[in-house]
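okkk here we go again. third time trying to get the 8-OXO-guanosine-5'-triphosphate bound version out, last two times i messed up the smiles copy paste (missing a bracket lol). double checked this time i swear
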Amino acid sequence: MDLITVVCGIIFKDDLVLICRRKAEKSLGGYWEFPGGKVEDGESDEESLLRELIEELNLKVKIKQHFFDTVHQYDNGAIELISFICESENITSESTDHDQLAWVKVSDLLGWKLAPADIPIAKELIEKFKG
Ligand SMILES: Nc1nc2c([nH]c(=O)n2[C@@H]2O[C@H](COP(=O)(O)OP(=O)(O)OP(=O)(O)O)[C@@H](O)[C@H]2O)c(=O)[nH]1
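finally!!
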C-alpha cells in the first residue's frame, strides 16, 4: 500500500506547544496530534503545512526548522509524518478538524493520548528540550 505523506507543525508559543484533539467522526477520532495534514501534489512540505494551518486553525506561523520524520503503519495504511518546529505569534482557539486544543509543556506531552505516529516525535522533542 502507498505511503501517505503528512506534515505537522510543532507550534510553540513561548514555552508551550499546541496539540489538537481530532473530532470523533474523523479517523483516529479522540487522539491528540500536532496539527497539519496530507501533502497535496505540487506542494512542498512547507507550503502544505502553512496551507493546512491556515485552513484548519486560521493560524499563521513561522517555520523555524525541519525536525524529525517517522513512518507509522496503521491498520488502514502507512503514513510518513514529517514535522517542523514553528513559532506562532497568536493563539488560536478554533479548529475545523478538532474539538479541543491545548497548549502544553513539552515535558508533559506523553501524558496525552497522542496519535501513535506522533509518539516518536514527542519523545524526540522531550529529549531535545530536556534540562
Ligand atoms: N495532521 C496530522 N495527521 C496525523 C498526525 N498523526 C497521524 O497519525 N496523522 C494521520 O495522518 C492522516 C492525515 O491527516 P489529515 O489531518 O490530513 O486527515 P484528513 O482529515 O485529510 O483525512 P482523514 O480524516 O480522511 O484521515 C490522518 O489519517 C491522521 O490520523 C499528526 O500529528 N497530524
